[in-house]
Amino acid sequence: EDQVTQSPEALRLQEGESSSLNCSYTVSGLRGLFWYRQDPGKGPEFLFTLYSAGEEKEKERLKATLTKKESFLHITAPKPEDSATYLCAVQDAGGGADGLTFGKGTHLIIQP
Amino acid sequence: DSGVTQTPKHLITATGQRVTLRCSPRSGDLSVYWYQQSLDQGLQFLIQYYNGEERAKGNILERFSAQQFPDLHSELNLSSLELGDSALYFCASSVMPSSNEQFFGPGTRLTVL
């Protein structure tokens, strides 16, 4: 069974204080690892897809990296508008199902 | 705005009742997914349709069912509702079943009293 564990559960940073969120995963075969951002009461917003170990993707202050066991979402010089819950998910290459398995998320608060 | 629409935004009903949630995928997307998000379980995959046919099931209860219509919109039917069914229900869509990017709608918040 696919499993995704995110840490920390919650993180409070000062504006401009860089940090990283962790996503550890167990999957029989990885088709893709996904990062989403979710604001309260809203649907998840797609950020990145990573396919293989060593891959990196960047978008504004966010950079996602992938190893064979985990992924990191690095946040550089965050702003208050980066406050949200960040969700990690995996898609299994086997089984025929394309549904994503999500972690429970990291609730990020950026204080001005 | 992802381009995926869901109605209604909120739904309040009583135990034992039946409700229908509706989803319209992004223009051009053929695959639709339903997810449930609760505080204790997080986001869980329920079921997937592709071009009108059921493609895969996840953690969907037997009391729940779904379908995708010829115009590609989808409906999720929840019956014999229990208090524990209270949650946010999201629909997502992708171009093809194997497409890696799934785009989520704004969700329907279901409250069962």
The largest sheet of chain A is: 6 strands, mixed
Radius of gyration of chain B: 13 Å
Summarize the largest interface: chains and residue counts.
Answer: A-B, 26 and 30 residues
Poorly predicted runs of chain B are none
Number of DSSP helices of chain B? 0
Number of beta-strand segments of chain A: 11
Shape of chain B: globular
Fraction in beta strands of chain B: over 45%
Provide a compact summary of the structure.
Chain A is about 0% helix and about 60% strand.
SSE arrangement:
The complex is a heterodimer of chains A (112) and B (113).
Chain A: E1 3-7, E2 10-14, E3 19-26, E4 30-38, E5 45-50, E6 56-59, E7 62-66, E8 70-75, E9 84-92, E10 101-102, E11 106-111
Parallel strand pairs in A: 2-11
Antiparallel strand pairs in A: 1-3, 3-8, 4-5, 4-9, 6-7, 7-8, 9-10, 9-11
Chain B: E1 5-7, E2 10-13, E3 19-24, E4 31-38, E5 42-50, E6 53-57, E7 64-68, E8 74-78, E9 87-94, E10 103-104, E11 108-112
Structure notes:
The complex is a heterodimer of chains A (112) and B (113). With 112 residues, chain A is mainly β. Chain A has strands spanning 3-7, 10-14, 19-26, 30-38, 45-50, 56-59, 62-66, 70-75, 84-92, 101-102, 106-111. In chain A, the strands form 2 sheets. In chain A, strands 2, 4, 5, 9, 10 and 11 form a 6-stranded mixed β-sheet that branches. In chain A, strands 1-3-8-7-6 form a 5-stranded antiparallel β-sheet, with no helix packed on it. The N and C termini of chain A lie far apart (41 Å). In chain A, 36% of the residues are buried. Chain B has 113 residues and is mostly beta strands. In chain B, 0% of the residues lie in helices and 53% in strands. Chain B is built from no helices and 11 strands. Chain B has strands spanning 5-7, 10-13, 19-24, 31-38, 42-50, 53-57, 64-68, 74-78, 87-94, 103-104, 108-112. In chain B, the strands form 2 sheets. In chain B, strands 2, 4, 5, 6, 9, 10 and 11 form a 7-stranded mixed β-sheet that branches. In chain B, strands 1-3-8-7 form a 4-stranded antiparallel β-sheet, with no helix packed on it. Chain B is globular. Chains A and B meet through strand 4, strand 5, strand 9 and strand 10 of A and strand 4, strand 5, strand 6, strand 9 and strand 10 of B.
